[in-house]
Write a structure and sequence with these properties.
364 residues; Butyryl-Coa Dehydrogenase, subunit A, domain 1; Butyryl-CoA Dehydrogenase, subunit A, domain 2; 3 domains; four-stranded mixed beta sheet; four-stranded antiparallel beta sheet; 11 helices
Length: 364
């Protein structure tokens, strides 16, 4: 289904198609993976120049005054081309910083100008009630210090600072923690991306780096979690779409028993099911993102986006592998890159089971 986009959104998608093709693709993703490179720096700098990191920030706060739907359109194209950049994360953080206002003005300007990568560092165990898993903040000698661990933070080595939610008694505090003040334990994921554990043992947080506290901090934390679910879901739609397109091209020319694979009805039904599931996912992402921009979204729908896009992306890319036959299981074929990227993104910010449980908790 083609969405009804306004002129600005159509231009955003057209520009994203060109940029992501120029700075992405399976060949580039494979080279980055083989080199053990966490982030594609040239692609990231091009995203900074495009202004998309602050696309969903109001013009008054220095952004483009667009919405999460616009960001999702670009993220879908980034997913198709396997861009190895923290686009979804930093765009969500920038949107939250824009809501904080003057207190976060310097941080937002640094993100917009590409002077820093401010990565969200949130507990992901279950992606449900994370309150008990938050680091503990203590105030001593006129300064804040954080103690705790946060696992599964992507692009942590490339970031200059992290947006951390910490607990002060019954309150929540959102603050920026500098990279050199934490210890990192980093491992490689199956697709070449990384996952780091942040260890904070008395990590210093200056007063100027405390963004917000109390009820507003709790509200913005929930907003950030919802946005990460939506934006990652948009990237998963792109991964799924590219895998299906590659598979359709393959079964059109691959011959078996003297006929093209695509002529067999059983395979036609299988790819038709993949197509329907993909279009349902795309429609869901667009509808939920547009609802958020209109101020009408229920948090359960963000959970639904991540649950469904994760489940379908894994299922669809597995089908794509099988439809390619034995060659699909070799490392040399590009279809495996999409399967591995689907695995990594599906596990990030709550997998299918975690987000389905969250959806139930928010609706029952």
């Amino acid at each position: 289904m083609e969405p009804i986009l306004n002129e600005q959104q159509s231009l955003m998608r057209e520009t994203a198609v060109r940029l992501c093709k120029d700075y992405g693709g399976p060949k580039r993703a494979r080279a980055l993976r083989n080199a053990g490179t966490e982030m594609d720096v040239p692609a990231w700098m091009e995203l900074v120049r495009s202004g998309w990191l602050c696309a969903a920030v109001s013009e008054d706060a220095g952004g483009m005054g667009m919405g999460i739907l616009d960001v999702s359109l670009a993220l879908e194209e980034a997913g198709k081309q396997l861009l190895m950049v923290p686009f979804a994360e930093v765009a969500a953080v920038a949107h939250v910083l824009g809501k904080i206002g003057a207190r976060a003005e310097n941080q937002l300007r640094a993100v917009q100008q590409g002077l820093q990568i401010l990565m969200p560092a949130l507990p992901q165990e279950g992606w449900g009630n994370v309150g008990s898993a938050l680091p503990i903040a203590r105030f001593e000698g006129g300064q804040w210090f954080l103690d705790g661990r946060i696992r599964h933070v992507p692009f942590a080595q490339s970031a200059q600072s992290y947006l951390v939610a910490a607990r002060i008694g019954d309150e929540i505090m959102l603050c920026a923690v500098l990279r050199h003040l934490v210890k990192l334990d980093t491992v490689a994921n199956v697709d070449g991306s990384t996952s780091s554990e942040l260890v904070m043992d008395g990590s210093l947080v200056e007063e100027s780096q405390v963004m917000v506290r109390g009820a507003q901090a709790q509200e913005l934390l929930e907003t950030l979690r919802d946005l990460l679910a939506i934006t990652t879901g948009a990237a998963l739609v792109g991964v799924s779409a590219a895998a299906l397109e590659m598979t359709l091209e393959y079964i059109k020319y691959r011959q078996q028993f003297g006929k093209a694979l695509g002529s067999f009805q059983a395979l036609q039904h299988r790819v038709a099911d993949c197509f329907v599931n993909l279009e349902l996912n795309r429609s869901l992402v667009y509808r939920v993102a547009a609802s958020y921009d209109a101020g009408q979204m229920h948090a359960a729908m963000a959970a639904a986006v991540k649950a469904r896009t994760s489940r379908v992306a894994l299922s669809l890319t597995r089908d794509a592998l099988q439809l390619h036959g034995a060659i699909g299981y070799t490392d040399e074929h590009d279809i495996g890159l999409y399967y591995k990227r689907a695995i990594a993104l599906a596990a990030l910010y709550g997998n299918d089971i975690n987000q389905t449980a969250r959806f139930s908790a928010l609706t029952l």
